[in-house]
Design goal:
The protein is an alpha/beta fold and about 325 residues long. It has two domains: about 240 residues, TIM Barrel (Alpha-Beta Barrel); about 70 residues, Four Helix Bundle (Hemerythrin (Met), subunit A) (Up-down Bundle). Helices cover about 45% and strands about 15% of the residues. It has 16 helices and nine strands. Strand 1, helix 1 and strand 2 form a beta-alpha-beta unit. It is globular.
Length: about 325
């Protein structure tokens, strides 16, 4: 197996957020934070437009592909395709609680089928040399979370999985929307830590409610890694010191303005290849979050999104407005 990516800090896979363009933006801010794709159903990779679904730029690496599904053979084939395309890790989604995902028998409902997850992990590992990891919740519905999570992890580690991202909330499969599932079930980091200590030699990355590098540094005293979610979308610049503080490296972005200008150049290249302006600009509103000019930056981008100007021009106009 090839070497495992450094998971001390990562940005979670998030639908409608962590596409290749947002990952490129984040990579301009942090060179070493591990990035994930949005969840892609394995069957779509086998039968759909692979470049559109999971194409990425080499500059985005290290980057992991998150798959959804419950058919071991289909997942194994999709994992093999992901490896051939250059991904550094394959991650199986066992945490998404949406009705659509449940109807397809994947995501968080698979926590109720640990043997299925084990079979999927085993099949994928047999096909690829890169790491196969699992992202899950601490439990679902009215399970005894501690016992159920321990049983789930036992079964999946026996299948060979050596790294888990634990979202420290239960998933409620009935009665709560995906958005409510990110907010209402209480976080239980202590439970996650207790259960993780039952599995020496297995890597555990904690996810859920983490909003700063200072929090991340504190959690690294308790877990092997930290996965940041929505805060990286609202405030991508929070990663500006990640390379130094988390990874002990010297690399750092020059400034938000330099990042915006570099991303504008990228947008021009992507627009020339036919990428819609809205897709390129939807994820950059938070770049100046928390500093003077942030409101003017957001307003300028929103007001010019529908106009004739290219995305790189919209960014330049927003920089002028925010100055």
């Amino acid at each position: 197996m090839t070497s495992s990516p450094d998971r001390r800090l990562s940005v979670a896979p998030m639908m409608d957020w962590t596409d290749r363009h947002f990952r490129y933006l984040l990579r301009l801010i942090s060179r070493h934070t591990l990035l994930y794709t949005e969840m892609v159903h394995a069957r779509a990779i086998l039968h759909g437009d692979r470049e559109r679904l999971i194409g990425f730029s080499p500059e985005e690496q290290p980057v992991a592909l998150q798959l959804g599904g419950s058919d071991p053979s289909v997942l194994a084939e999709a994992a093999s395709i992901g490896e051939a395309m250059g991904y550094d890790e394959i991650n199986l989604n066992v945490g998404c609680p949406s009705d659509r995902v449940q109807a397809g028998r994947f995501g968080a409902c698979l926590m109720l089928e640990p043997q299925t997850v084990a079979d999927c992990v085993s099949a994928m590992q047999a096909r690829v040399d890169i790491p196969v990891t699992v992202k899950c919740r601490i439990g679902v519905d009215d399970q005894d979370s501690e016992q159920a999570l321990s049983d789930f992890l036992t079964r999946v580690t026996e299948a060979g999985c050596r790294s888990f991202a634990l979202h420290a909330r239960k998933a409620w499969l009935k009665g709560l929307s995906p958005k409510q599932n990110r907010e209402i079930p209480p976080l239980d980091y202590d439970l996650a830590e207790r259960v993780s200590q039952q599995f020496p030699g297995i890597e555990f990355v904690i996810n859920g409610g983490i909003r700063s590098l200072s929090q991340s540094e504190a959690f690294l005293q308790r877990f092997d890694g930290v996965m940041i979610g929505r805060e990286a979308c609202a405030n991508p610049w929070m990663l500006a010191e990640a390379d130094q503080r988390i990874f002990g490296q010297d690399s750092a972005p020059d400034s938000r303005i330099a990042v915006a200008e570099a991303y504008a150049d990228y947008c021009q290249r992507m627009a020339e290849q036919g990428t819609p302006k809205s897709v390129l600009l939807r994820n950059i509103h938070g770049l100046f979050q928390g500093i003077p000019g942030a409101r003017q930056w957001r307003r300028s981008i929103s007001e010019n999104m529908a106009g004739e100007a290219g995305p790189h021009v919209v960014i330049q106009q927003a920089l002028v407005a925010a100055a």
